[in-house]
């Protein structure tokens, strides 16, 4: 008998100190690099987008990969790539931690549209407002030490 699974995650992580160090004009190169890491880990990337200080990823996590291991490898590799890339001169690293939210596959189009429309909803809400809203929506207790 074959095993079946669907492990759909919406992942968010930010730059160190939420500094706006991701140059949006070159972000597609960063997203392609991150997409390559995700693919090499046997995961399926559905969507990636972000702003100057954070990134959203929607992916299907391969069952042999622990989320923490994927995020460690993804953040480490992309941080080294960004620091060596002259198109991102102000990047100093990623902040510790990340947010990871699970969704049913039936929600994928709504969540993908949300990620695609980052520039639109960040005209009114900054990253911390957005992040807090997602934590509340998913009934996650907020550690106020990380919300200045």
Keywords:
four-stranded antiparallel beta sheet, single chain, 148 residues, 18% strand
Biggest sheet architecture? 4 strands, antiparallel
Instruction: State the shape.
Output: globular
The radius of gyration computed from the alpha-carbon positions, rounded to a whole number of angstroms, is 15 Å
Q: Low-confidence stretches at least 5 residues in length (pLDDT < 50)?
A: none
Report strand %: 15-25%
Using DSSP, what is the number of strands? Answer: 4
Q: On the 0-100 scale, what is the average pLDDT? A: 94
Ends apart, CA distance between termini? 51 Å
Outline the structure in words.
- It is a single chain.
- With 148 residues, this protein is α+β, with helices and mostly antiparallel strands.
- Helix content is 38%, strand content 18%.
- It is built from 5 helices and 4 strands.
- It has helices at residues 27-40, 67-84, 108-116, 118-121, 127-137, and strands at 8-14, 44-51, 54-60, 99-103.
- The protein has a 4-stranded antiparallel sheet, sandwiched between helices.
- The N and C termini lie far apart (51 Å).
- The mean pLDDT is 94.
């Amino acid at each position: 008998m074959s095993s079946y699974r669907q492990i759909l995650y919406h992942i968010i992580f930010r730059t160190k100190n939420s500094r706006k160090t991701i140059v949006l004009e070159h972000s597609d190169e960063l997203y392609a690099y991150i997409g390559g890491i995700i693919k090499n880990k046997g995961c399926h990337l559905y969507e990636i987008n972000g702003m100057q200080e954070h990134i959203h990823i929607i992916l299907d996590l391969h069952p042999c990969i622990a989320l923490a291991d994927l995020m460690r490898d993804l953040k480490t590799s992309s941080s080294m790539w960004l620091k060596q890339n002259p198109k991102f001169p102000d990047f100093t690293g990623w902040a510790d931690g990340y947010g990871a939210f699970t969704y049913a596959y039936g929600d994928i189009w709504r969540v993908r549209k949300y990620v695609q429309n980052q520039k639109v909803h960040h005209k009114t809400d900054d990253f911390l407002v957005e992040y807090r809203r997602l934590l509340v929506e998913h009934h996650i207790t907020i550690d106020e030490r990380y919300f200045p």
